[in-house]
Design a protein that fits this description.
The chain is of the alpha+beta class and 149 residues long. Helix content is 25%, strand content 37%. A 5-stranded antiparallel beta sheet has the order 1-2-3-4-5. It has a 3-stranded antiparallel beta sheet with strand order 6-7-8. The protein is globular and about 45 Å long.
């Protein structure tokens, strides 16, 4: 076992995502992609995987002792309406990005149903680019939903 393995294990135990190569993610999880969908970034958390594509965020939760059973959840990028970032402090804090997204099918309804999802990253992870991308999506979506775009 190498030092990298222990670092990944400690990050996994503490709930942190570790970045993986998009090509590696496509080899393993390409079966979940639809036509014209491309992986932008991918992260692992011990056995679980989070994939950011040009269409959605795919969250793969491997379950059971073997990990053969899995839950696959999608959050469509067009439904993201807010994004928050918290960087790590001097202590044992980690970095976080929390997104708020619409759960109703019609984005232009008389009411909004929203949920949030928090992603935790290792302390040294550079999450500013991912935050900027998600926040720009939220801004664009808000303009479109409110007929300002």
């Amino acid at each position: 076992m190498t030092k990298g393995f222990f670092g990944n294990l400690i990050n996994g135990i503490s709930g942190n995502l570790n970045q993986i190569d998009p090509n590696t993610a496509k080899e393993h999880y390409g079966k979940f992609l639809i036509d014209d969908e491309e992986i932008q970034q991918a992260f692992t958390l011990i056995r679980d995987v989070v994939i950011f594509t040009n269409i959605r965020i795919i969250i793969i939760d491997k379950q059971g002792t073997t990990g053969k059973k899995m839950s696959v959840k999608s959050i469509f990028l067009i439904n993201i309406v807010d994004c928050e970032m918290e960087t790590a402090g001097a202590g044992i804090d980690d970095s976080e990005i929390t997104i708020t997204y619409l759960t109703n099918v019609k984005r232009k309804s008389n009411y909004e149903n929203t949920k949030t999802h928090k992603f935790e990253f290792p302390k040294k992870a550079n999450i500013e680019g991912l935050y900027k991308w998600l926040f720009s999506l939220a801004y664009k979506n808000r303009l479109e939903i409110n007929d300002i775009a």
